[in-house]
């Protein structure tokens, strides 16, 4: 039961990290 939850959390964390990284890189390039 806990495995799907862990995978979902991991995927969500990766997506959030990618978005944050992309925004940070864009901000750096824009600045």
UniProtKB/TrEMBL annotation:
Q: Which domain of life is it from?
A: Bacteria
Give the record's keywords alphabetically. Answer: Membrane, Transmembrane, Transmembrane helix
Q: Which residues cross the membrane?
A: 6-23
UniProt-recorded name of the protein: ABC transporter permease
Organism of origin:
Coprococcus comes
